[in-house]
Amino acid sequence: QTPGEYLLTVRLENARRLLREGGLNVSQVALRTGFNSTAYFDRRFRLNAGMSPSEYQARYGAEGSNASAK
Question: For the whole prediction, is pTM greater than 0.70?
Answer without folding.
Answer: yes
